[in-house]
């Protein structure tokens, strides 16, 4: 598969670099466009075999999959600039632009051919740059084979979940916004560690290793968090007292409120 990524910013560049480092797509079959030479140079620094250019129309001509990774307010203009050279009989289109529906994408990409493009909406999170993303994919018109190929591609960059379009906003809240929410807890724990007497550097390392351990318990034991919590709490014990204080001060409600507010 040849892929063109229109927009070589943080997300587009991370996707390109991750795919180039994998074994499904040769780096030379990845083309990335950007408006500035500085951005294109950064892509080349990541992997010199990735093809870079500023001409979107030329970039999409030989692609099997065209992926838009631009700011929402730029998408309509950029789509209008390439749609007449897209051939929807052989080319598929994906978007990582949050909040733009399949209906709106179809309108933007209408090139008068009477053929509706196969579309994907893809929502990763920032850990995609490390191959640790949670990525949600919804599709419109894809065959099972086409969808599986795109899922396999993004599985190289973390864990991929196929959802309906209606669940994309919820996925954004839980995983894309959620990575910031998780970091907020870690930040609070580090600050708390300093209050307990550790240095900031020591507290950071302790909290990070504690997080690794908590995740490992869930993964290795195939358990839900409450099951592991139950193993370390005893009536009247200090862990239970700490959990009760968190609940009393609104920790659980605050987490849920954050998720619901970001929908």
UniProtKB/TrEMBL annotation:
Locations listed in the record: Cytoplasm
Domain Pyrroline-5-carboxylate reductase catalytic N-terminal positions: 2-85
InterPro entries for the chain: 6-PGluconate_DH-like_C_sf, NAD(P)-bd_dom_sf, P5C_Rdtase_cat_N, P5CR_dimer, Pyrroline-COOH_reductase
Enzyme class: oxidoreductase
EC number: 1.5.1.2
Pathway(s) it belongs to: Amino-acid biosynthesis; L-proline biosynthesis; L-proline from L-glutamate 5-semialdehyde: step 1/1
Keywords: Amino-acid biosynthesis, Cytoplasm, NADP, Oxidoreductase, Proline biosynthesis
Domain Pyrroline-5-carboxylate reductase dimerisation positions: 165-259
Catalytic activity: L-proline + NADP(+) = (S)-1-pyrroline-5-carboxylate + NADPH + 2 H(+); L-proline + NAD(+) = (S)-1-pyrroline-5-carboxylate + NADH + 2 H(+)
Free-text function comment from the UniProt entry: Catalyzes the reduction of 1-pyrroline-5-carboxylate (PCA) to L-proline.
HAMAP family membership: P5C_reductase
Family under the similarity heading: Belongs to the pyrroline-5-carboxylate reductase family.
Listed name of the protein: Pyrroline-5-carboxylate reductase
Organism: Alistipes ihumii AP11
Source lineage: Bacteria, Pseudomonadati, Bacteroidota, Bacteroidia, Bacteroidales
